[in-house]
Amino acid sequence: MMDVQLNSWLLFAHTQRHHAEVEIVSRFASGDVHRYTYDDFGRRSQQLMHALDRLELEPDAVVATMAWNHHRHLECYFGVPCTGRLLHTLNVRLAATELAYIIRDAGDRCILADPDMLPLLEQVRAEGGLGSVRHIVVLADHVPETSLEGVLAYEQLIAAEPDGYGQRDIAEATPLGLCYTSGTTGRPKGVVYTHRSTFLHALAGTSGAGMSLGPSDCTLPIVPMFHAMAWGMPQAAVAVGAKQVFAAGPLDPVAIAQLLVDEAVTVAAGVPTVWLGLIDALTAQGTRPPALRHLVCGGAQPPRPLIERYLRELDIPIIQAWGMTETSPLASLAWPRHAYRDLPSDEITTKARTQAGLPLPGVDLSVRDESGVEVPADGETMGDLCVRGPWVADSYFKNAESDKFDDGWFHTGDVAISAPNGYFVIADRTKDLIKSGGEWISSVDMEAQIMAMPQVFEAAVIAIADPRWLERPLAAVVPCPGETVTLEDVHAHLSAHGWARWQLPDRVEIIDQVPRTSVGKFDKKVLRTRFG
Ligand code: ADP
Questions:
Q1: Cα dihedral 262→267→268→270 (10° resolution)
Q2: Which residue's CA is minimally distant from atom 9 of ligand 1?
Q3: What is the pLDDT, as a whole number, of residue 3?
Q4: Which of 91, 163, 366, 458 could disulfide-link to 386, CB 3.0 to 4.6 Å?
Q5: What distance in Å separates the CA atoms of residue 436 and residue 466, rounded to the nearest whole number?
Q6: Model-level pTM?
Q7: Which residue among 91, 274, 307, 322 has the greatest number of ligand 1 atoms within 8 angstroms of its CB, and so is best to mutate?
Q8: Which residues belong to the active site?
Q9: Predicted pLDDT at 163
Q10: All structural domains of the chain
Q11: Which residues line ligand 1 at a C-beta cut-off of 6 Å?
Q12: Whole-angstrom Cα distance, residue 490 to residue 94?
């Protein structure tokens, strides 16, 4: 067989040749909609490649983006790596101090930033974060008012460049992308994706075991392009010539619901809080988005009532996915097996939809006890989840925390339970698990159960220190408008659902909102500081 190097040119050149007429649509926060084709995208990305060369960046320079989801960001996704340079997607929701740390750690040479990011970049500069940066390019026609010096406008930069670059035979082990973990469990660490890992991950993403994407599809990644490469959805869509839709800016549920209908989106992807935030806008439309086949939901466990509500009210299946920045990120998806097709919906939900899924081909999972021995797949025993595969990191950037990789497996820090039917579920994160007197209580299970109470809007459970039991659960609860929730209510509900007395939370704290991380997950670090 031919020894073809698996690099991003393989995806990029293929799509320009075979899918030239397919549309890419970007909706901006202003309401403006930009449309063009894969042919336009291909030509402009190659202009960007020339422009990066002309800026005299080193051949392997780290080039960062600081941008929302839109077509120009997609051009960077291919324009940067196809020159052999490393694409570093900066998380726009981080504070200036964190960004300064990450930009310094990565050694970014150039930053391609949305216009609304310039004030944040000014703060990053004040934090001493721009030392390595030689160029700032604003992803717009003109440079807005800013105190930053020498800022270039993207459109002016690429305008005069030729739109053919010439395919390069980039070795597949070449670094392609750099993403930092969002730091839910400590200081952000860099993860480097290669051309090969990105190619394989994109193909797995298109497969029926992945997000199930082909030329008949239209994708809408609501997961940000600055977080774990939008789960590889943009590359997967390019691989198969799927139409792509992007929504730039913070989540606007009404606009997204409208886009799903107007653009006939077939597959969308986002974290549970996105789908939680969208359901009312979707039901308010009165019709289900006509072309929508399924929603991919990962990053945290979607609560069962949410999965049931999408099925019941909109006939839309939520396909749960599990993964991490370190796993590119897609590692497993919870497609129901063929054998389940005639089962009552409730049973399919229990057996498959509420699970973290079945591993993608090539991804190997191992759930182990404290001594490293694999625990039985009995649907009950918890263990540490380890993973390996062609798109799983074998180290962090600059070898941070190397002990997590020491036996050829990546130790995820997640606690999992494997079931006899081949699925597995994330019981918790090691750091969130409540260790009460030698017994483990899953904070995730408890908050899911509390969120099933009709008077509860959302809830998060954390461990608090206890002199006798070491740790005990505390539930932070947001009641629905006009409702009250007491410790006794929570105890009564949990007891009625089979929770033992020793597992019940010691405290219930009423809060206005569960704090979120920069990518929309529950931020338990904040709750621990507040109540711990
Ligand atoms: P961070 O580690 O900073 O939160 P990541 O996006 O890499 O950023 O998060 C990966 C983590 O998200 C996993 O380790 C896991 O704890 C959680 N996660 C992802 N998918 C699921 C899922 N389907 N169910 C439960 N937890 C999940």
A1: 170
A2: 324
A3: 95
A4: 366
A5: 9
A6: 0.92
A7: 322
A8: 181, 326, 435, 440
A9: 97
A10: 1-22+38-195 (3.40.50.12780), 433-532 (3.30.300.30)
A11: 181-184, 228, 298-301, 320-325, 356, 412, 414, 426, 429, 521
A12: 34
